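Tutorial, part two.
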Amino acid sequence: MAATVGTGSPCGACKFLRRKCTPDCIFAPYFCSEQGPARFASIHKVFGASNVSKLLHHVAVADRCETVVSIAYEAQARIKDPVLGCVAHIFALQQQVQTMRVIKS
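Running the prediction step on this input gives:
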């Protein structure tokens, strides 16, 4: 998920926000120039770029990639279901487990 910082092409987040991508851009390693804008759009819509930037600054560098994946998943879930978000998917999976238990009984 590396972006092309310094090559003249902004990362996906900076491209979406229409700003210059700096070498120390917090989003660059996680939002590539090609697919990043679409992926970042949902994150920005749900959480806001500033909030995500602050969050990433508080997370250890080694954990940021997983954090971005989790934030992206939650943003997509919140767009589909603004009230429950990813909890709706968890409930659906729990229901499937219950159904399988009943079938096996």
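The chain is about 60% helix and 0% strand. In part three we will examine how such features are distributed along the chain.
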